[in-house]
Amino acid sequence: MRFEYLIGIRYLRARRRERFVSMIAFISLTGVTLGTFALTVALSVMSGFQEDLRNRLLAFTPEVTLERADGGVWDPAELGRKIAAIPAIAAASPYVSSQVMAVSNTSSGTPGYVEGGMLRGVVVRDNSVLTELQKTLQKGSLDSLDTDHRITIVDQGQKRDVNLPGAIIGRQLALALGLELGDPVILISPASLASGMGAPRLKRFIITGYFHSGMAEFDSALIFVSLKSGRTLLADDPQLQTGLEFRLTNMFDAPEVAERIAAIAGPDFKVTNWTQDNAPLFSALKLEKFVYFLVLLLIVLVAAFNIIATLVMVVMERRKEIAILRAMGARAGSIAAIFLCEGIALGVFGTILGVGAGFAASWAIGAYHLIHLPADLFIVSEIPVRLYAVNFIAVAAAAIALCVIAAVYPAMHARALSPVEVIRYE
């Protein structure tokens, strides 16, 4: 080991008359440790929130969608076969979507509550696009959408048995309408109401399941029915949106895959992907994460200033030793290396302690759900945590870089000391 390293580490250990200097060094080390600890935990939690929110959004938002640019009705079967050949596409499925009004019934058969909603008609069987929806179901199953269910309803004061298709709705929408499993609900297409001509197009369904995503915009509005039932209800509705939705093997390939789909489909079609639909939200999360990084990095910056003070005092205390080393033939660069070694040692040791403790704390919070949140105020009941190596590497690199920079000034000051002047006056 080079003598610069040995001397640098030796200078960090206190002698009786230098306890104050070592105390400041200890404070600097603690500051680096606390700063890196706070940074790693904050970034792990922010990454967890970001990924959890993204997964919840993509449970109900297709990664890529294809629709006609003019909003017209078209047959997606032939075009879907061509696009499905793209290797990055894991699943493709047709869908219909439109705004509807949902009306519940009282026990006497009269209309009850009315709420607006978004109808989505989907293919149920062997549809990999709906995998995430299946995970959010609290009651019922997706297969119930494809079968008719025998139910007794009260219509104009008379009881009669009918076969109704199934519908799965958000839990908040069910509560707003006062619906339970097995209750009928009437869905009304608003097209004819807007034109003021003819009777409104409506269809009765039976509630066969609830889902709960934790996202109010989905839980209070979405209504899933089979593709056949959705087309029957909407028919010639000018607000009808019909298209193809795609799931990808890698969700982050969505922009590139969307461009390839647009090239195949041509100018008559509109292709969107999840990064466009939710761009403001994810940009805000990315900015917030970066701001947290900068703000918490100030803790390490304060510790770096303490390192400057510590090393400057060490230089002043060791003036005679520095002069003797120079007189014995030590180069100016070797003197600077001694104090750079001290700064690096404080930064590296503090960073290892802080990042290690931050990793352990983040893992424990995620594994054992140590921090709980009010479920009625947040979309999650426990703080989500994601451990990404890049976060820990970025924190460690930033902390060590600040500590090295902080050691440069004291090292240059020690390098510039004149041994002749020091020996003459000391």
Fold and architecture overview:
The structure is a single chain. This protein has 426 residues and is an alpha+beta fold. It has 2 domains: 3-57 and 282-425, no CATH class; 92-245, no CATH class. Helix content is 52%, strand content 22%. Strands 2-3-9-6-8-7 form a 6-stranded mixed barrel.
Helix content: 40-55%
Give the strand order, joined by hyphens, for the main sheet: 2-3-9-6-8-7
Strand-pairing-aware structural class: alpha+beta
Rg over C-alpha atoms, rounded to the nearest angstrom: 33 Å
State the assembly state of the protein chains: single chain
Provide the β-strand percentage band.
15-25%
End-to-end distance: 31 Å
Biggest sheet overview: 6 strands, mixed, barrel
Our count of domains comes out at 2
Gross morphology: elongated
How many helix segments? 15
Outline the low-pLDDT stretches: none
How many β strands by DSSP? Answer: 11
The whole-number mean of residue pLDDT values reads: 86
Order of helices and strands: HHEHEEHEEEHEHEHEHEHEHHHHHH
What's the topology here?
Blueprint: H1 3-12, H2 19-58, E1 64-68, H3 77-83, E2 89-105, E3 111-122, H4 131-136, E4 137-139, E5 148-155, E6 158-170, H5 171-177, E7 184-189, H6 191-195, E8 201-211, H7 216-219, E9 222-226, H8 227-234, E10 241-248, H9 254-265, E11 269-273, H10 274-277, H11 279-317, H12 319-327, H13 332-368, H14 389-415, H15 419-425
Parallel strand pairs: 3-9, 6-8
Antiparallel strand pairs: 1-10, 1-11, 2-3, 2-7, 2-10, 4-8, 5-6, 6-9, 7-8
